[in-house]
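Q: I'm writing a short explainer about Wyosine [tRNA(Phe)-imidazoG37] synthetase, radical SAM superfamily for a general audience and would like to include a description of its predicted shape. Could you first generate the structure from this sequence?
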Amino acid sequence: MKIVFGPVSSRRFGLSLGVDLSPALKQCNFDCVYCELSPAKSIQAQNSVVSVEEILHEINVNLNKGLEFDVLTLTANGEPSLYPHLKELITSLKKLLNNKKILILSNGTAVLHRDKFEALLELDIVKFSLDSVISKTFYRIDRALKSIDLNLMIEKMAEFSRIFKGELVMEILVVAGLNDNEKEFKALDEALEKISPLRVDLSTIDRPPSYPVKAVSEQKLNELATFIKSVPVLIAQRNFSEKKIRLSKEELLKMLHLRPQSQMDIELKFDDETLKNFNELLAQGCIKILKLAGVKFYKVDKNY
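A: Of course. Here's the predicted structure. Afterward I'll give you a sentence or two in plain language.
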């Protein structure tokens, strides 16, 4: 039973040392159609619980190896916030890790429970998923426990964002034929405006899913991203197979004014001529750099 894994390199959060809070089996209050783990009945609480002492011991073993990492990531075979000793664990980790950041990858349901809500406030980075804000679609994709109130969860995410001193990131995973349309994304944009995270990560299925659902194309992800106006969007692609684009300086400034572009966008999408124009504009101070939860974004400087 391996609790700690990595470090692994991530373009989204840097070099990450992972901690699995449900190492023995899948334990989740969702049973998402795109999950790479085998289907399992949604549950309200963990039945198989690893102790805080076991987790800390394994982390210490890895720290004593002199491993280099930027962030320690709390995750699980399922939903990590179901871990019953979350507050105690986070308190211990903060003492143990000193200057290392702590991140959790959560489906967002923690905000519905005051003790979990307060535990997550102590973290450096929190990432919530939100695949749909339309109830019918949400339950079709995430197969959540029916006791989970989607509208209340969105309101509580917004409340969490207002209080949280760390970096809040949202994630949307797009499933073909379910949440891959303008109506869904305009509704998501309204919710994201309320929640006000630093950024939203947009992705699609890239591993064999537990149910017979399909990914959307890179082109579709880019199209859907245009409906998100309220927050910078990172399209989390492993590669970009489409033809690279060429933009003049004027076209680049227009693009960056309408929507900030991530470092990943620039590396994967722009041809050499566009990169030259981009670097010249950056040197001239026309473009501003934003660092949002470990990812660089570029936008037009408001003074330009």
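A: For your explainer, you could say: The longest strand covers residues 167-174.
Q: Perfect, that's easy to follow.
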